[in-house]
Amino acid sequence: MDHLLCMPLPKKASHKGQNGVVLIVGGSKTYHGAPVLAARAAVRFCDLVYFASTEENNALVKKMKLGTANVICVPKSKFNFALKHATCVLVGNGMDADAKTKAMVSRVLRSNKRCVIDAAALRVLPVKLLHKNVILTPHAREFEAAFGVLASEENAGKMAKKYGCTILLKGVRDIVTSGGKLAWVKGGNAGMTKGGTGDVLAGLCAALFSRCEDALRVAYTASRLNKRAGELLYKHYHYNFSSEDLADELAYAAVHMP
After folding, report:
1. Helix crossing, 243-254 with 33-42: angle to 10°?
2. What HEC string does 113-147 produce?
3. What is the mean pLDDT of the chain?
4. Dihedral angle, C-alpha 114, 118, 124, 128, nearest 10 °
5. Which pLDDT band holds residue 196 (cuts at 50, 70, 90)?
6. Rounded to 5 degrees, what are φ and ψ at 232?
7. CA separation for the pair 203, 199 (Å, rounded)
8. d(Cα 103, Cα 251) in Å, to the nearest integer?
């Protein structure tokens, strides 16, 4: 098996909560689906998933409860509890690129917890707060918004090294880089251009990061699994599969890696 893959098995004597706890912070009035997709990807790969959104966004919380029964929705009064107990935090999916999101991203980064930063959070990223426990999952435009340079293999490597984080730069071939190390991930297909596939990847990445401390291996594994799931779906549906299908295919892909 590929030495970079990181798919830890639960210990036989373990109990609920000892095999990864993820907190997802996301959603807005416009984008309710993004954190739901991230959660659907995460729940199969960790023990617990908490979800928090804006205080006024009760409609989104209801949608999350309907979207998956495996998520614990936390009100503002319980946010500190969820943040404390999470072993990884995912922030950005479906959020607006505004001052509130920037404040939340800053709060998560200052906690020094393992975290995955995606979507709108990348557009308001306080780069000076990045650290070794951070995985960024941008596409090219988000990378350029975050760092002010063109998205390329060279620049991804430079930014990861400069800020001490791990970057998973999404594309036809994903680039995963951290601390001067770099790996390419091929695979997938054009069916994965649909909206939401990046949210699935981010949720998977957060779940794996909640259980494995090696950020480079986590980002590489998430990329491999996500692309593999797309390949398996292509065999049955050609390009006609959805982001929800992708999230639900990940567990099967995990036991059918080439």
Report:
1. 10
2. CCEEECCHHHHCCCHHHCCCCEEECCCHHHHHHHH
3. 92
4. 30
5. very high
6. -65, -40
7. 6
8. 34
Q: Does an H or E element contain 169, and which? A: strand 166-169
pLDDT tens digits, one per residue of 156-191: 999 999 999 999 999 999 999 999 999 999 999 999
Domains of the chain from N-terminus onward:
21-253 (3.40.1190.20)
Query: Which pTM was predicted?
Result: 0.94
For the chain, report the end-to-end CA distance as a whole number of angstroms: 9
Q: Which two tokens stand for residue 207?
A: 């779940």
Task: Determine the average pLDDT of the residues in 82-102.
Answer: 95
According to DSSP, the residues that pair with 1 across neighbouring strands are none
Q: Which residue(s) pair with 24 in the sheet? A: 51, 90
DSSP tag of 91: E
**pLDDT per residue over 212-250, tens digit each?**
999 999 999 999 999 999 999 999 999 999 999 999 999
Q: Are 196 and 37 in contact (CB under 8 A)?
A: yes
Residue type for 181, please? K
Higher pLDDT, 2 or 126: 126
Q: Residue 92: CB partners within 8 Å, gap ≥ 6?
A: 25, 26, 101, 105, 117, 118, 119, 120, 121, 122, 202
The helix/strand/coil state of 71 is: strand
pLDDT at residue 1 tops 50: no
For residues 250 and 226, the answer to whether their CB atoms sit within 8 Å is yes
Neighbours of 157 (CB within 10 A): 19
Residues 6+ apart with CB under 8 A from 55: 75, 76
Q: What is the pLDDT of residue 56?
A: 55
Identify which of 238, 257, 226, 232 has the alpha carbon closest to the alpha carbon of residue 44. Answer: 226
